[in-house]
Amino acid sequence: MDVTPNEAEEALAAIQTVMQKTRQSIASSGTYITLIVTGIVWLVGFVCTQFLPGEIVGYIWTGLSILGSILGTVWGFRIAKRVRSPATAATAKRVGLYWVFLVLFCIATIAVAWPLDGKQVTILIVLFAMIGHLAMGLLLSFAAVWWPLPITALVLMSYFLLPDLFYLWMGVLGGGGMIALGLYIRFRW
Amino acid sequence: MANLNETVHQPVRLRIMAALVALEAGNEVDFSYVRDLLEVTDGNLGAHLRKLEEAGYISINKVFVERKPRTFVAATAAGRKVFQEHVAALESILKRK
Question: What's the structural domain count of chain A?
Fold first, then answer.
């Protein structure tokens, strides 16, 4: 079989492109779903928190959290079905346990630091959530590591620099930023 | 020196093998995932998958998921070895350039 250097070069370039595309598409599939669903929850929840009375906001957050969890799980499972791995079940169990422990640690931290105001509770929850996503990125797909970092930076900026507009900033920039990032990863990455 | 493999070298089959080898060993992907990734038709992909399966380079696993038929494909150990040898052979051609 004769292959010229030019043909070899083209074949190697095609191989590299497909391998990179495959790895990116696998790595980004869960990431963009998480980003879009969480972003919508943040956008609606935090904007409502800024403008609506506390009692109504509590119900809105409860509804959004339940809806977000269901949407993220169903959507994630649909995408995950495209790739089957013998290690998936064991990994999913460990990931689930990790998030349970992280929630418990977050509750413990809030309890130790109590009394806190609404903004402090919010930022602690968000920081724990970002640590969780960062760990998931580091352990499961390195391509997904970077996004919690700019979101955390935005959240901290809003907490320290714009306390009066904290929730609005969280919703529009934090939530909107996540949606934009998710859409970018889905369509442009 | 590594050998070029005629079955693998065909452009669509080369891209199929590249996609499957990029997965972790043991992982398999849905037929529609490969079709969308490589932007080929169902018939074209099916024909090339059959060739690769006949050569023992990939495994095709037909299962029912929620009562719907699904086809999953994966690179076999032999397929991964042949593909790596093919890539090494291509690289050696470039080095001789």
Answer: 1
Task: Give chain B's length.
Answer: 97
What number of C-beta contacts closer than 8 Å exist between A and B? Answer: 79
CATH number at residue B38: 1.10.10.10
Q: Say how far apart CA A143 and CA A137 lie, in whole Å.
A: 7
Tell me, yes or no, whether B1 lies in a domain. Answer: no
Provide the domain count of chain B. Answer: 1
**Do B86 and A11 touch, CB atoms closer than 8 A?**
no
B91/A8 touch (CB, cutoff 8 Å), yes or no: yes
Q: What is the span of the domain harbouring residue B21?
A: 6-96
Residues of B in contact with A12 (CB under 8 A): 87, 90-91, 94
Report the residue count for chain A. Answer: 189
Tokens of A75: 């959507």
In tens, the pLDDT along B12-63 reads 999 999 999 998 787 888 898 899 889 999 999 999 999 999 999 999 999 8
Residue of A nearest to B64 (CA): A81
> pLDDT digits over A32-87, tens only?
777 888 889 889 998 998 898 878 888 888 788 788 877 777 776 666 666 666 65
Residue A49: which domain range?
5-187
Q: Is residue B32 part of a domain?
A: yes
Taking CA atoms, B30 is separated from A30, A58, A85, B57, in Å, by 16, 42, 12, 17
Calpha distance A83→B28 (Å, rounded) = 6
**What interface predicted TM-score (ipTM) does this complex get?**
0.89
Residues of B in contact with A91 (CB under 8 A): none
Pick from A3, A9, A74, A84 the residue to mutate for testing the B interface (most B CBs within 10 Å).
A84
- Calculate how close chain A gets to B66, using CA atoms only, in Å: 11
